[in-house]
Design a protein that fits this description.
elongated
Length: 59
């Protein structure tokens, strides 16, 4: 099946920052045009970065 590896520290930090941005934008009701049309999409991107770090070695 899948051989999961721990993500690199940089990958984890990037995904955490993206997720935190999505949470802050949602609860503070801040809108940044063309960047966060959907807070869910921003959170999904953060999760996908973390997922890539787990699935691919060296990321």
């Amino acid at each position: 099946m899948f051989r999961l590896t721990p993500p690199a520290q940089a990958t984890f930090i990037v995904s955490l920052v993206i997720a935190m941005i999505a949470v802050v934008l949602h609860y503070a009701r801040i809108a940044i045009p063309h960047v966060t049309q959907s807070n869910f999409l921003t959170l999904l991107i953060g999760y996908l970065v973390l997922l890539a770090g787990n699935l691919f070695e060296g990321v």
